[in-house]
Amino acid sequence: MNVNMFLFDDFDMLGAFGPAEIFALVSGEFGINYWSLQGDIVNSSQGLKVWTEPVDLEASGGILLVPNGRGARRVLYQERSVIEQLLTLVNHSDYCMMVGDGACILAQTGALYRRNVADSLQENWKRMFTAAINWVPGVPWVADGKYYSSSNALHGMDMTLGLIADVLDVDIAMRAADKLGYHWEVEEGYF
């Protein structure tokens, strides 16, 4: 299954590459694509430069992952055509993963209307950009249908393991966590 990581300038490295590392540990099951709207070099907020391919709508099935980061808020102010392209990605994806404030980006598409999403935002951002979304406070991550969200970058790793457990098997997810030396609480998510 493809994992299509949607990157933007000033994304958070842990929010993107924590899940990528976990997916890579599950041999032969996931292929990772690094996409951006234009397909160019994208800078993380920590200074890492990542070469990305342009969004490929024909290959957009599988998992869409939107990380967190300072740049997420800039994406919100993009032209409407950008938000429409993201909605097309969401509609073509089997699963959508949002890390922290990456949920704001998908909220602008309207895809999260009346969905449960892990609370990661300040109150004024929730009022401005995310009406009619049920923000679930005090949980590390949430699964609601095909939508998986985490409250922050570290819990993005828990969410990734939860998705792998749901899609493949909990034992496969546990083995991936063990390979990392990562202590994963299986029952942490909110469903």
What does this structure look like?
The chain has 191 residues and is an alpha/beta fold. Strands 5-2-1-6-7-11-10 form a seven-stranded mixed beta sheet. The longest helix has 15 residues, at 153-167. Helix 1 (13-25) runs parallel beside helix 6 and helix 6 (153-167) packs antiparallel against helix 7. The chain is globular, with a radius of gyration of 15 Å. It has helices at 13-25, 71-76, 80-92, 102-107, 123-129, 153-167, 170-180; strands spanning 2-6, 31-36, 41-43, 49-51, 53-54, 63-66, 95-99, 116-118, 134-136, 141-144, 147-150. The protein is built from seven helices and eleven strands.
Tell me briefly what this model is.
This protein has 7 helices and 11 strands.
Q: Specify the biggest β-sheet.
A: 7 strands, mixed
Count helical runs: 7
Tell me the fraction of residues in β-strands, as a range. Answer: 15-25%
Structural class by sheet pairing and helices: alpha/beta
In terms of quaternary structure, the protein is single chain
The radius of gyration is 15 Å
| Secondary-structure element pattern, one letter each | EHEEEEEHHEHEHEEEHH
Helix/strand layout:
Layout: E1 2-6, H1 13-25, E2 31-36, E3 41-43, E4 49-51, E5 53-54, E6 63-66, H2 71-76, H3 80-92, E7 95-99, H4 102-107, E8 116-118, H5 123-129, E9 134-136, E10 141-144, E11 147-150, H6 153-167, H7 170-180
Helix pairs in contact: 1-6, 6-7
Key traits:
191 residues, alpha/beta, two-stranded antiparallel sheet, globular
